[in-house]
Specification:
two-stranded antiparallel ribbon, globular, alpha/beta, nine-stranded mixed β-sheet, 2 domains, Arc Repressor Mutant, subunit A, about 300 residues, D-Maltodextrin-Binding Protein, domain 2, 11 helices
């Protein structure tokens, strides 16, 4: 006789967390339970359905092929369950309840300090949980239900989402003290010395936006990809190690204060990236996201 018991949402959340983190301790931390609670929940799930989902060894957590299939299904089930709550919130006060937003690192430190105080003042019932992660991880979080919306820079392929453009963010070329070309503004992409160009490491979309704006394919091969953050690259430029490209929101936030760096706007046909807020298509909270986008668009 078939069992009438069904997996709980909590068990499915534990399984998803373990898949995402690849480690019992980190998975438990991500869902705010003890490691023993998470491990017991997954064992209960395996007992309930009568199959092994996770092969446990001292050093490695390995999902079985069936385990991978069930995780994929579990993501959809949990996301659908969360949208039940989203529907209720959407019918209530605007921008209230919990909201999880992923923000890319070349936006988060420059835009969030200016918008968060306004959100706290105007929408005190909103509990905004923030995660800073590169564009690829942020879009994956959105698709998998770990994030409700993403603050990112376009163009970027983020899957089947609705993206609301907020504003254009112009790119600037930053020079060490004494190296700024005289009487030249803006800086033409053809005048960039590719052997001196410092850019963020792979995984940061600002690097791709900067290279696309220059329309010089050889820059990708010649530029030095070594900065882990814009603040790190600014310190390298300030020490005379090269030049770099910075977004206008970083300049407006004072990233060049206490340095000898001079910056000039980048010329060319498309010297911008577009800051946007994205969410899953047909989300019940679309009204909230559109309102949040309106607020974000005013704080650059």
């Amino acid at each position: 006789m078939a069992s009438t018991y069904l997996p709980t949402l909590k068990q499915l959340q534990y399984l998803i967390a373990l898949k995402d983190q690849g480690h019992f301790g980190r998975a438990a931390d991500s869902v705010y339970v003890t490691q023993s609670t998470l491990s017991a929940g997954i064992r209960e799930l395996e007992t309930l359905i009568g199959v092994t989902l996770v092969e446990r060894t001292r050093r490695v957590v390995r999902f079985t092929p069936l385990g991978d299939q069930i995780v994929a299904k579990a993501r959809r089930v949990v996301r659908e369950a969360e949208e039940l709550g989203d529907m209720a919130r959407a019918a209530g006060q605007p921008l209230s309840g919990e909201m999880r937003m992923s923000v890319i690192p070349t936006i988060a430190p420059f835009l969030l300090p200016r918008v968060l105080p306004r959100l706290r003042a105007d929408y005190p019932d909103l509990k905004l949980f923030l995660r800073e992660e590169p564009s690829g991880a942020a879009c994956e979080s959105l698709q998998n239900g770990r994030a409700d919306c993403v603050l990112l820079a376009l163009p970027y392929a983020c899957g089947e989402v609705t993206a609301e453009p907020l504003f254009d963010d112009r790119l600037f070329l930053a020079f060490p003290e004494g190296e700024l070309p005289e009487g030249v503004q803006p800086i033409s992409p053809k005048d960039i010395d590719e052997t001196r160009l410092l850019l963020l490491e792979d995984g940061h979309c600002l690097k791709d936006h900067a290279l696309a704006a220059c329309n010089r394919p050889e820059l990708r091969a010649e530029a030095t990809m070594m900065g882990t953050s814009l603040h790190t690259i600014v310190q390298m430029v300030d020490n005379g190690l090269g030049v770099t490209m910075l977004p206008e929101i970083a300049l407006n936030a004072g990233i060049l204060e206490h340095t000898g760096i001079a910056a000039r706007p980048l010329g060319g046909d498309n010297p911008n990236r577009t800051i946007a807020l994205a969410w899953r298509r047909a989300s019940p909270r679309e009204r909230d996201f559109k309102l949040l986008a309106e607020i974000l668009a005013t704080v650059r």
